[in-house]
Amino acid sequence: MKSRNIVDSFNNAIKGIIYGFKTERNVKIHFVIAVLVLIAAVLADLSKLEVVLLFITIAVVIAAELFNTAIERLIDMVHPDYHPLAEVSKNMAAGAVLVTAVGAMMVGYIIFYNRIDSLSLAFVRRIKNAPIHVTVISLIIIMLIVIMLKSFNFKGNFLKGGMPSGHSALAFSLFTSITLLSKSALISSLAMLMALMVIHSRYEAGIHTLTEIIVGAFLGMLLTVIIFELFQIVT
């Protein structure tokens, strides 16, 4: 049924976006990443051209994911039973999303690289003499706090499930420690990639919700920074 006016067209488009957000975990992930990137853009004081490139990149990735969802639903409706060509179509649509996501990562890396390096160096100079055992202490403290928090909600167990995600907290604590100690944007970027792979595996396996993962990551980063700062005050 065709839309009668432009208002109906906008409403239908928004319904499609909301449906994709509600039903597809990857759409949720893209939205969260988009918000984080835009916050980073504000803090990094990007140029107008860089901001435009980020907006275009974000829009392309989210649009590709929505197209992928639409293609999957259409194939399931037309051919609910398994068919090799249906599988090929879905895989190609998913491949298109992957291409846009990798392109977006490269754009973000190029735009933020120098700023990450300068910002990290400004902060790292304050804690460059911190010994490596501070990292170990951070991980142990975070593990203890995660266990205490999980004991309150009684969901899952200490190694699987529950609020917050222990794997996410430890992965991002380690990423934060590496960033503070390495003084290198490249090494920090590789550490972040490993941390993202950890949380993606937990989310993809259905072990943790997106909220549990985000809370765990935030907890890991925040506590690690606090511990490093306390070390500087004491010393």
Which tags fit this structure?
mainly alpha; Helix Hairpins; 2 domains; 8 helices; 0% strand; globular
Strand count, sense and barrel status of the largest sheet are:
none
Find the CATH topology of the largest domain.
Helix Hairpins
Order of helices and strands: HHHHHHHH
State the share of residues found in helices, binned by percent: over 70%
Question: What would you call the quaternary organization?
Answer: single chain
**Roughly how many Å apart are the termini?**
71 Å
Beta-strand percent range: under 5%
Class of the largest domain in CATH? Answer: Mainly Alpha
In total, the number of strands is 0
**In the CATH hierarchy, what is the architecture of the largest domain at level 2?**
Orthogonal Bundle
What is the arithmetic mean of pLDDT? 77
Provide the structure class: mainly alpha
Roughly how many Å is the radius of gyration? Answer: 21 Å
Uncertain parts: none
- How many separate domains? 2
DSSP helical segment count: 8
- Assign an overall shape: globular
Description:
The chain has 235 residues and is mainly α. It folds into 2 domains: 1-113, Orthogonal Bundle (Helix Hairpins); 125-235, no CATH class. It has 8 helices and no strands. The chain has helices at 6-23, 25-44, 48-78, 84-124, 133-153, 166-182, 185-204, 210-234. The longest helix has 41 residues, at 84-124. The radius of gyration is 21 Å and the shape is globular. The termini are far apart.
Write the layout of secondary structure elements.
Blueprint lengths: L5 H18 L1 H20 L3 H31 L5 H41 L8 H21 L12 H17 L2 H20 L5 H25 L1
Helix pairs in contact: 1-2, 2-3, 3-4, 4-6, 5-6, 5-8, 6-7, 6-8
